[in-house]
Amino acid sequence: MEYIILQAEWTQYDKKNKLDKMKPLIICTTVLIEKSPQALPLGAACIASALKHDDVTAENYSVMLTSITAEDTGYADACNSGTTGSFIAAAILASGKPAIVCFSVYVWNRIVLEQAAGELKRRIPGLVCIAGGPEITADPFSSEAFDYTIAGEGEVAVPGLVARLASGAAGSLPPGVYIPGKENGVARTLTFVHAPAPDIGKTASPWLDGTIDPSRYGGALWELARGCPFKCSYCYESKGEKKVRYFPMERIEQELDFFAQKKVPQVFVLDPTYNADKKRALRILRLIAEKTPDTFFYFECRAEFIDKEMAKAFTAIPCALQIGLQSAHEDVLEKVHRTLNKKLFVKNIGILNETGAVFGFDLIYGLPGDSLTGFRESIDFAVSLYPNNLETFCLSVLPGTDLYDNAENLGLVWDKNPPYHVLHTDKFSETDIARAEKLSCSCSFFYNQGRAVPWFNSVLYPLRTRASAFFADFAAWWDVTGHVRTLEDENSRCLPHGQIEQSQLDFVKAKYMEKNLAALLPAAEDIIRLNGALSRTQADGITQTLRTRYHPDDIMSEYATDIGYFAKNAKKHPYTVQTFMSNHGADWKTI
């Protein structure tokens, strides 16, 4: 049944893009973790756009973009039965019989795409499989499932290779193009000649030329720049040119007009250091406020470039910022060529809090020189600054990075298969890595999914415990209280917020009773429940009704941040509170 649906989608695609059925077909494709604005086939779309706008390709081929996601019907069953490659191949072939397939290869999909390429070549003799992306750039000789691989950006190299294939010309390959498993007449090393970078001022926009439709993914992934001025050794950019190439403002304005026309609800901005160029960042924020005031944007930022003007500009539009803290320890960050001015970091995050900006932090465990104790201290430092979310990751030793080249000297032992996670280090044992993973899952469930930022530090303070210890205790409590799923189970991430809130309330009650804080429990519970109801109303627009022991105005006042003071001085009285959406967001009233 899923292939019938896919075929209907391809028929609509044919009509929209006027595919010439008389020409051989090129399919640009990838496998996504999910169908979402964060996970859409932008890399494959950029190659498809480059091919469609290339004279030789346009004359000789039709070009199509497609993708498969791990959420597609039948994908999980295929994984369980070991037939993922066949499933992906069948999904690709549902669109027609390609002459060339271009794969966009990342950490999470390399193995299944290699399997799919092998299956496609078995079914279609003479099929040409081309692969590019970060995983291929790291070692273009390694994936022998593909006929050709591209090291570096592909908008120039792929059309060049296709032109060569169309003409049947022999001879040397275009720069940056390799045949896996062969030396191409040069010594095989870990250093490769990359494909020439395109002039991004002249590249086609896959949004504007109709290659990709944001309505299929619930939003857009918006590329504003390529490259990074920093050299964090764990990142693919660590061996880059340490400079940023910006897309022209004319294209940015046109894409914003397109997002406004399509009423795109959310946009994830692809620029690893959005606020590095303050003047440009402010100009784009003003354009967003003018053209797409109802679209929610997600930015990646550096805290050291935050000031009051920048913070106010962010709060003038619906948006959230994600800030890469990675570790609270300067000596640990120094080992991966990353800097941290802790005093300035705290100051600038304070500016974000003062202006009401929504922001979150990223942390990595398993970094060289770090330990479980150090990771817990990083969690404590991060939570003390009131982030709206705290994302924690195990370090990946990615091939093609500076970290990969120096990993053994840094005491890292890692899995040589994707996603290349650290197994242990000289200071972070395998057991401690497992503990860090459990701590990470607990933090994600209780703090992020539980939407705990408005009340977490207030509820934590009377317990006289650190955030990391609290999350560790929650994980232990979860395991012994009969929950069907572990916190590591992906299904736990799908629980409705009301169910998560009940777990929060049960655990907080257990901790307060353990610490002889029963007198403070009614106040703590009211704070958790009212904030939770407001968050559900804000997220879903649904009215919530609840009973409280204190007046909601008191519960939401600054006095409630000190629960001991609040419980001692606020007057108790039963109230029925109803939440609702107003012009200013979620609000409340007594009924």
Describe this structure in words.
The protein has 591 residues and is of the alpha/beta class. It is built from 22 helices and 21 strands. The strands form six sheets. Strands 3-1-5-6-7-8 form a six-stranded mixed beta sheet, sandwiched between helices. Helix 5 (84-93) crosses helix 6 (110-123) and helix 19 (497-514) runs antiparallel to helix 20. It is globular and about 85 Å long. It starts with a helix and ends with a strand.
- Ranges where pLDDT stays below 50 over 5 or more residues in a row are 1-16, 185-189
Strand content: 15-25%
Number of DSSP strands?
21
DSSP helix count? 22
Choose one word for the global shape.
globular
> In what order do the strands lie side by side in the largest sheet?
3-1-5-6-7-8
Q: Specify Rg, calculated over alpha carbons.
A: 26 Å
| Helix percentage | 40-55%
Distance from first to last alpha carbon:
50 Å
| SS content category | alpha/beta
Mean pLDDT level: 92
Major sheet: 6 strands, mixed
Keywords, please?
alpha/beta; 6-stranded parallel β-sheet; single chain; 591 residues; globular
Write the layout of secondary structure elements.
Blueprint: H1 2-17, E1 25-29, E2 31-32, H2 42-52, H3 55-60, E3 62-65, E4 68-69, H4 75-81, H5 84-93, E5 98-104, H6 110-123, E6 128-132, H7 134-138, E7 148-150, H8 157-167, E8 177-178, E9 220-223, E10 225-226, E11 245-246, H9 249-261, E12 266-270, H10 278-291, E13 296-301, H11 308-315, E14 319-326, H12 330-334, H13 342-355, E15 359-365, H14 372-383, E16 389-394, H15 402-406, E17 412-414, E18 422-425, H16 430-449, H17 456-460, H18 467-480, H19 497-514, H20 521-540, E19 545-548, H21 552-555, H22 563-569, E20 575-582, E21 585-590
Parallel strand pairs: 1-3, 1-5, 2-4, 5-6, 6-7, 9-12, 12-13, 13-14, 14-15, 15-16
Antiparallel strand pairs: 7-8, 10-11, 17-18, 19-20, 20-21
Helix pairs in contact: 4-5, 5-6, 9-10, 11-13, 16-18, 19-20
